[in-house]
Amino acid sequence: MHRQVLLTLLDRYEPWDLNEARMYLATKEFVRAQPRCFERSLAEGHVTGSAWIVSPDRTQVLLMHHRKLDRWFQPGGHCDGDSDVRRVALKEAEEETGVQNPRVVGDGIFDVDVHLIPANAKEAAHYHYDIRFLLEVDPKVPVVQNPEAKEVRWVPLAEVARYNDSESILRMARKLHPTA
Predict the structure, then answer these.
(1) Which stretches within the chain are classed as H helix?
(2) Does CATH place domain 3-176 in 3.40.50.300?
């Protein structure tokens, strides 16, 4: 596993606020300490890649209603051994929304989040060290419904809190529009 690429991306990143800074430091520590950090089989947790997909004018975000968790989230998923977290985020965005060739905005990380995934019938509770990238897509491009989602929908940025009011989601919205 090549952790150095992710560690370099993290070194170039500046957290948005104190809450994100705490998760950022925890992520750096986790990646440094765990050679298998990209493996889903690492029981305590693993690195995941996500995409915050926005319209070119930054007034809309593409969210999916996650079937298992029954909540609205940005597309994303497990690295499954792939240390190129940006590639993982792009792959997940395409698979979960059907958008093709989204434009990566900037050359670095957009957001860092650590969240606990509750235990289920297949796995014990564990942490996702989620590395998020900002992608841009024209909202006129058709989206595709997929088996992991109940629905995929463009949501006005000003209405994101109606879909998911978690600090994790609201922080990404505020990064685009501080009053969101």
Answers:
(1) 3-11, 18-33, 85-97, 160-163, 167-176
(2) no
